[in-house]
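protien #1 (seq + structre)
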Amino acid sequence: MPEQSTQPEARVPGQAAPAAETAPEQESLVRAQQRARPAGDPAGNRIGVLVGGLILALVVGFTLGKLLGPAESPTAGATTGAPAAAPDPSAGGAHVHSPLASAGSEVGGLSVSSGGYTMVPAAAVFAAPGPQDLKFTVNGADGKPVTTFAIMHEKPLHLIVVRRDMTGYQHLHPTMAPDGTWSVRADLATPGVWRAYADFTAINAAGTQTALALGTDLTVAGDHRPVPLPAVARQAAVDGQTVVFEGTPVIGASQPLLFTVKQGGQTVTGLEPYLGSFGHLVVLRELDLGYVHVHPEPALVNGGVKFWMSAPSPGRYRMFFDYSVGGKVRTAQFTVEVK
């Protein structure tokens, strides 16, 4: 260990001395002032008391500051009061929304790896179209599968599967084995390249939560025939119901989008909670399939489900609105153009 210098610290001219060094000088000054005044001078006594009190406060404050040190701020992203040990996956703790989930201004799902986490599919090529058993892990920076996730909207992980022409949309909820392997059956009904998005919040051993959306391609062999993107429209027909949305997404500013389910010209009043809310909205950008998962306001607004979205860039997007009526989950699909 290097020897510490015993020479006094250099001081910039005009700079105030530390409280510990100033105290003796101030005390000498007080004594000199007291000697200069006649005994029993009330003004001198008052000044002495005031200056002495000030010196004492400075010395005590300086000493306490050294002993206590600066206050520590909680670790960014950590759940308040989280234990040092990793919590039970079924408990999950408070869910921390990713930036992409808060207002829809950020795009996720473009990479298989982000934030120290990697989505690793067991198989990415399938010999024929049809139902497939999808298996994958989410590996941490150490290369080992992560097994602790926060519960978000009643599930630890949401898997979105869609073909690259944005047909065949599915919102799935895999189950996790003790070794961290996720499994779910998906219908890869047609040949071509499909995109799978894992939307989750991982929790590390320190209790820090990291919310991410990772994406990977799945290839189904066969004659691939892309389907053109449907035209821009504000309403969609689903099982005899009509879903209408109001609002216009713009770039760089959060705007409301209101989705209303109607039947026979009347607003359906029987919307049911689905995964902890009255609806879910997934938005995919046409050119690169950038993924945005936007969550709604907790209460219905005039019988509809209200979301807030800020578009990340101009272009066409495909919106998938999941809702539940009569115990059945339906998906209304829309094409929207942002200018």
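ok now protien #2
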Amino acid sequence: MTDDSDLPLFRWRPQCRVIAYPPARRIGKARDVAAKWLQQKTRKQADAYAIRIDDDLDDHLMRLGVHEQERKAMRDGFWQTVRREIARLQRCDSRPGGSAA
């Protein structure tokens, strides 16, 4: 009689994979980045801030073990969310009478 533990099925272990929370869904973070980006005094400062945030996000995803292509797609999704928040904040600021109108 053979031992069931000798079967390859019992020795097989699936590869572990970390599923990162999609940065594009981090609305609070995107709103914070958008507000701080708009507060920068010059375009150069705003660009430097965006580069720093992008590098930090890439480092975070890399530490989680996310592959390079997937990291790029996740970062692109995050920046789309940030751009939407920037547009929303600019619309609110440009309304006559403020955002309560």
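Residues 44 and 95 are 27 Å apart (CA to CA).
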